[in-house]
Amino acid sequence: MTSIDYATRIPNNVDLAGDRTLQRALEQWQPNFVDWWRDMGPDGSHNFDVYLRTATSVESDGWAHFDYVKMPDYRWGIFLAPVAAERRIHFGDHLGEDAWQEVPGEHRANLRRIIVTQGDTEPASVEQQRHLGLTAPSMYDLRNLFQINVEEGRHLWAMVYLLHRHFGRDGREEAEALLQRRSGDADNPRILGAFNERTPDWLAFFMFTHFTDRDGKFQLKALAESGFDPLARTTRFMLTEEAHHMFVGDAGLSRVIQRTCEVMNELRTEDPARLRAAGVIDLPTVQRYLNFHYSVTLDLFGADESSNAATFYASGLKGRFDEAKREGDHRLHSETYEILEVKDGRLAPRRVPMLNALNEVLRDDFVRDSLSGVERWNRRVEKTGVTARLMLPHKAFNRRIGTLASVSVSPEGEVLAREKWEARAHEWLPSDADRAFVASLMGRVVEPGRFAGWIAPPATGIDGHPIDFEYVRFG
Ligand SMILES: [Fe+2]
Ligand SMILES: [Fe+2]
Questions:
Q1: What percentage of the chain's residues is helix, strand, coil (to nearest 5)?
Q2: From the CA of 454, how far away is ligand 2's center (Å)?
Q3: Left, alpha or beta for 347 (phi > 0: left; psi -120 to 50: alpha)?
Q4: Which residue of 34, 111, 392, 435 has the smallest Cβ count within 10 Å?
Q5: Residue 415 pLDDT > 70, yes or no?
Q6: Cα(212) to centroid of ligand 2, in Å?
Q7: How far is it, in rounded angstroms, from Cα 315 to Cα 226?
Q8: How far does the centroid of ligand 2 lie from the alpha carbon of residue 209, in Å?
Q9: Is the pLDDT score of 280 beyond 90?
Q10: Share of the chain above pLDDT 90, in %
Q11: pTM of the prediction?
């Protein structure tokens, strides 16, 4: 059951042919998805032959098959990781019971909400990134963008399968609505804030894939623990694809930083104006972009105290990151966790029941992961001899959700009067002038092996091919 049948209209490893009603319903959704892709997928790319990775099986050696594909013909399909024999729920109040293969009635509304919220982020990011192909810094980067886009499309398929298979009529309605909301639309926006922000340039794209796809990793890791087995198996396979998205962001930012440091050394200057004149992105601008994308991504984890998060955990729907590897009773009735609150105008720690703080627990796991990314970039900077460093802003900086939304905090963690904060915001967040400068560098460089001047080439190509391989053939 793990090899994927590509002869059918919808490639799958879930025996779709054995459920004609479900198959018909998904085949009705499919043309609407393709219409959405043609309208909202990568701009002007429909005739390109792109060297893409497609899963041929969900075994470890089967999900990285590469070939040229025209993206609208990409075989989006439904792939679940194999069933683990006798899987049991390993956290929450149902601990020890058999994992569910069907949706338990009492948890139906919450599960649907979890799946719809995750599903909504997938097409949203494709919409946010749809113009970036026009300003790719290289053919190699263009191919990576398209790889991410088709895989986010497949992640939408993954969530839509669960909705169609397990939620009947309202599941089908939710699946339609996933194709109707639009990132940034005033009347019908995507569900979560960060997915309505613009991703107008490649620095924003690398920040997005580094930080916001990393939020995706942590959400998926928490759902991969779910007592609802089809959700756990779906998200486990999605995580294999997510790793590449974060690689693109992480490596992309490393290459931007590398190039900037090289020019800093050549010109022996840290002066942003001189570096900009030389056509590279000065590190303070990189830092401001980082501050923005990191802080809006932190908000995706939700309020620091949340009764929904407690319910999702107690019900066995959503675990913690690496739940199975953690110590403790996995019920959390007697554990506490430290969150931040504002007391007399200062940030102060406060202990609350861990069950209510699970959004914060996951956010802190994300913070640790993000920190190691910044340390990696700083080691790269250090190797060039440049003394400047990048940093993660304080987690209370620029927040819009939870307790911390009520305070104005500097990147160093100092609580400020709102007017003071506003007056300094241009030091901390990208200004219109920063964005205009970065936009001015964005030109289309797509000859094999050539790279825009603001970014260093990667160390290696894709799938063992050289950097100057023809990753995209323009039709
Ligand atoms: Fe995704
Ligand atoms: Fe992703």
A1: 55, 10, 40
A2: 24
A3: beta
A4: 34
A5: yes
A6: 8
A7: 9
A8: 7
A9: yes
A10: 91
A11: 0.96
